[in-house]
Amino acid sequence: MTDIVPLRRNVRFQLLWLGSAVSQTGSELTRLAMPLLVLALTGSPGLAGVVAGARTVALLLAQMPAGVWVDRWDRRRTLITAQGLQAAFSTLLAALVLTGQVHAWHFVVLAVLDGLCAAFVGPAKDTAIRGIVPSGQLHTAYAQEEARTHAAGLIGPPLGGLLYGLGRAVPFVVDAVTFLAATIFYVLAKVPRRPEDRPHASAQASGEEQRPVRLSMRRQAGEAVAWLWRRRGLREVTAAVMILNLLGGAFLLPLIVLVGERGGDALTTGTVLAGLGIGGLTGALLAGRISRLLPPGRLLLAVVTVFGVALAATALPWGAWWPMIPLMFITLSTPSLNVVMNVVIARMVPEEMLGRMGAVLSMGGTALKPLGPVLGGALAAAVGGAASLVLLGGLLVLTAAAAALSKELRRFTGEAPAEENDVTRDRDDPRRTPA
Predict the structure, then answer these.
(1) What is the dihedral of CA 136, 139, 142, 146, to 10 degrees?
(2) Which DSSP symbol is given to 8?
């Protein structure tokens, strides 16, 4: 038996990571450039919001069907095709902008198509990581993924603004190039095509060889939901994460109001919010180590508590710049939780169910998230920025206290049951690790 190849020499994972990095950076470029161009062409902030909302709605609606299909189809072909289509759509948009033929409806249609493709890219890429990274290296792999996410979020928007200043079409041309490059990286990565088909239970009982039974999409989605419901501990963690996403997504508007109440201008507000990116990138770099300090259940309780205390601390009367400091602590702690949850899912979920399970958890985690800004805006209008932040922070601390009452959550380690470890043992054989 050969030694496990270090992750930095796992060429397939690094190619997959590079593809994700350039693709996400390209998307972040247009995150700012897109509304700027829509505003310049139409003068309508509402339409700029419609474009962003169209992509989000398409992504959410397609998420569950995409998860089922990723489990059914050749995953390598699905990933390459979806990413290739994103490259084609972004190239079309760049061409329309370059020739001056772009209209408002083009943005909406192409945003919807991009969202549909993204619904397939996400689960296909997640399943690929499990297929090419040994179990013992998953913490490091997902920490590297977190660093990529935060780095792209920091670099992309300002770079997009800079490129837009050089010419309206420039960020969209660069975005198209990044999608094309990502497609090439995914081709070179040669990610696993699909899990081994397993015989139906009746065939196993009789000893007969039968073809796998293909369930309907609704039954396959229901199978994933039922699997999650039966996993005590993981079920409670998922519920707590949903509440964290709701309350954590509500603080932005009250924070902006707070900075304004203290005399801060737009530059001050932007600098304060940069604390999120600084803390997030630092936390991502440390996530691999932090995530090993506590088991998943207790780490969740710690992260939610830190989030709540830091959020309430932003309201301390120490000037307009002060909130930047506690914001750093918020995003310093959250990447470790993301890493742990990704590792837990990769280890616990049967490989043939990864696509569906990823869709279920993603939808569960984001189901309440859109309500966050609505809640935050309503609170800021009713009681002001400082009081809203104290209230949201207090609710998060209460959430952690309530979650701590669950014995299953406190003891949750994220280890797969013994019978599932037997199923995945071959995958973790070092002899199958790519060089």
Answers:
(1) -160
(2) G
- The first and second tokens of residue 44, run together, are 């309508």
How far apart, in whole angstroms, are the C-alpha atoms of residue 406 and residue 396? Answer: 16
Query: Distance between CA atoms of 159 and 299, rounded to whole angstroms?
Result: 35
Residue that wins the pLDDT comparison between 351 and 344: 344
Q: How many beta carbons lie within 10 A of that of residue 148, not counting itself? A: 18
What does residue 163 show for φ and ψ, rounded to 5 degrees?
-65, -35
82 and 131 Cβ atoms separated by less than 8 Å: no
| DSSP H or E segment with residue 328 | helix 324-348
Distances (CA, A) of 248 to 40, 58, 370: 32, 23, 11
Percent of the chain past pLDDT 90, that is, above it, reads 18
CA angle 259, 261, 263 (to 5 degrees): 75
- The secondary structure of residue 368, as a DSSP letter, is S
Taking alpha carbons only, the member of 148, 410, 430, 408 closest to residue 304 is 410
Of 111, 118, 28, 1, which is closest to residue 358 (Cα–Cα)? 118
Look at residues 382, 239, 258 and name the one whose alpha carbon lies nearest to residue 312.
258
Amino acid 158: pLDDT: 78
Phi, psi (degrees; rounded to nearest 5) at 291: -65, -15
For residue 252, give both structure tokens. 């932005």
Q: Which of 430, 404, 88 is nearest to 237 (CA)?
A: 404
What mean pLDDT is predicted for residues 369-377? 77
Using an 8 Å Cβ cutoff, are 280 and 331 in contact?
yes
What is d(CA 112, CA 101) in angstroms, rounded to the nearest whole number?
Answer: 19
CB neighbour class for 22 (10 Å; exposed up to 12, middle 13-18, buried from 19): buried
Mind listing the pLDDT tens digit for each residue in 71-130?
788 888 889 999 999 999 999 999 998 888 888 888 889 889 988 998 888 888 888 888
First to last CA, the chain: 14
Closest to 329 measured CA to CA, from 398, 279, 383? 279
**Quick check: helix, strand or coil at residue 74?**
coil
- The number of C-alpha atoms within 13 Å of 43 and in the hemisphere containing its C-beta is 0
Question: How buried is 398 (Cβ within 10 angstroms: 0-12 exposed, 13-18 middle, 19+ buried)?
Answer: middle
Task: Tell me the HSE value of 355 on the side-chain side, using a 13 A CA sphere.
Answer: 30
d(CA 183, CA 304): 37
The overall average pLDDT reported for the chain is 80
The total number of residues written for the chain in this structure: 435
3-state secondary structure of 242: helix
